[in-house]
Amino acid sequence: DRQYEAKRYLIVTLISMAVTELSKLNTKLDNGDWALSDDEQIIIYQKALSLIDVLCEDNDYGEDILNVSELYRNIAAVFSRKNDIAKSLEYLKKAVTINVSFDNSYKPTQVHTSLLLRNDIYDDFFCTDTNNASLSLLIDINSNEDFNAVKKEAGFADLCNELKKVAGNRN
Question: What is the pTM of this model?
Answer without folding.
Answer: 0.91
